[in-house]
Amino acid sequence: MLVRAVAEFFKYKIVSSVIILTCGNEFEQVRLVRELSIHGLRTTATCDPSLLDQELSSLQGVLYFMKPNDTLLDETKLEHFSAWYKWLIIGDEIPDRLHRVRYDADIVLLDPGQGTAQNYNALDSNNTIPYHESLYFSDVYVHGRAGASRHPWAACAPAGFEARHERARIRRRLHLQRYPMRIATPVGHYDESWYDGTFAEYVTDNTQPERDSAIRCGYGGSSLILERLHATEVLTQVEQWGTEVGNRSMFTRLADGTSELSGSILRVQAKRLSKVDYLIPLWPFKVGFTYVSERESNSNMFVMPFTGATWVAFAVITLILAFAQRITAKEPFEKEGAFVAVMATILQQDASAVPEGASGRFTFMVLSVCSTLVYAYYTSAIVSALMSAGGGGPTTLRALADSRYSLASEDYDWIRYHIFDVFKPDWPEIEYLKLKKLQTMTNFYMSTEQGMELVKGGTMAYHAEYNHVYPLMRILSDDQVCKLQYVHTVPHVMTWLATTRRGQFTDILRIGGDWLLETGLAKRMVSRWQVKPPPCRASLLAERVSYGDVAPLIILTVVGFVTSLALLVLERAVAKWQVKKNGEELIG
């Protein structure tokens, strides 16, 4: 029954293989391996805990038999008591070693002496032995302050394995009992010389969204996650953001495990995947140069007011009206000049061939109304397009390097150590920009207020996270706002909250992060700190005329065309009747 219960447990945990951690009788080890293999488990027996050191890509089961004076657990590393290792300990009490292991340890205790038993006759009717019909598993919960405790979890009965208290086990781990959790938060632009308050007050102050909005959003998200998990938040102030030098940055604090959660956001990069784990995507991140350009002339300006479908629709209408004008014409010269008359009317020019018949005149009237409305659509749309014409200027880093604009940048440690103050051989565009424009870095770094003042002058391209400069664009005129152009160094990308790679709290922090996304609080955090760019007022009128806009006009024109044909039929019928009547009168 014990072997079957062990096999059912590891199958429930969906492990790829089982390591039996035990020393002693090798014959018994081989027998146990064979019996577990019969139940479909790949099993290895060893007396060396270093076998657990291999990098795991799937869950690993570990079976341990408690014995007096056994030191195997003490020799096992702490990282082997993590969620990647599913431990089953056969014994009647919690080993002392388990009081000092990781929070995410997945350890179950199975006491063979506990269970529902009955006596049965084995070989001799006078000799009976206990046979356990059911064996009970206890969940071992490890807390950093209280140590390890055991709780009822599952049972293995003749009917099968049943995890009766799985929900209680999960809820127990999602309640950290006010355990202190450190949030490593970069200082950003915070300085006591200009901000009257503590750093904790600064990162929750939403009166200045243009300052360190990504830090405030990231810290707010981490704070809500810890509140959901009933942990105690410890704000750890660090000098830098994502540098890997020393122990003064948020990234290095997460990488070495001295902080559990990031107080800001990080981009997903290949070199970081081996050092940190990413929790949830949170902040839409964009960084680049902003400058005021001159208005750009466009050779397609006269085509732009109408969409392609609209131009095709008008071409079809022109052909239909020309055909209608031709078939309703009475005189030969009217038929010959039908197409020219239609084109002249649509182009608002004088039409020399006015039809004489009723149907032809009605068709001409429909044509005139249609052309007048088309002209009104076109002229209003082209004026709007001219008013909102985008500015011309460089659109790439290489073009910006060859332009007349001088450069400046917001002073952030990640901008210094990831873009401008380091050599980037895999980024030739930025190196070309440095070579052409940044021979000297004097006065290159400046505040956002100073940078936007120079952008207003029209000779400066200022580099910053766009969310920091959007509120400061209020100093620009409406015309300058419409001429703003951007050259990205970091295109739009989602950035993430991060934690220590395979840390003891990684799994529950991810659950807290999923809760943040599912409840919509993450979107609320972003909307609280994200600033929208100022609108170009001229562009509010600049919308191309689509097919849906002119659909009523086209329907009206088609109805007029059909009506003109009906009038043509009626006119010809009346003409024939008059000819017949006149012929009868002449005969009489």
From TrEMBL:
<keyword id="KW-0675">Receptor</keyword>
<keyword id="KW-1003">Cell membrane</keyword>
<feature type="transmembrane region" description="Helical">
    <location>
        <begin position="302"/>
        <end position="324"/>
    </location>
</feature>
<keyword id="KW-0325">Glycoprotein</keyword>
<keyword id="KW-0812">Transmembrane</keyword>
<dbReference type="GO" id="GO:0005886">
    <property type="term" value="C:plasma membrane"/>
</dbReference>
<keyword id="KW-1133">Transmembrane helix</keyword>
<keyword id="KW-0472">Membrane</keyword>
<feature type="transmembrane region" description="Helical">
    <location>
        <begin position="550"/>
        <end position="570"/>
    </location>
</feature>
<feature type="transmembrane region" description="Helical">
    <location>
        <begin position="362"/>
        <end position="387"/>
    </location>
</feature>
<dbReference type="InterPro" id="IPR052192">
    <property type="entry name" value="Insect_Ionotropic_Sensory_Rcpt"/>
</dbReference>
<protein>
    <submittedName>
        <fullName>Ionotropic receptor IR23</fullName>
    </submittedName>
</protein>
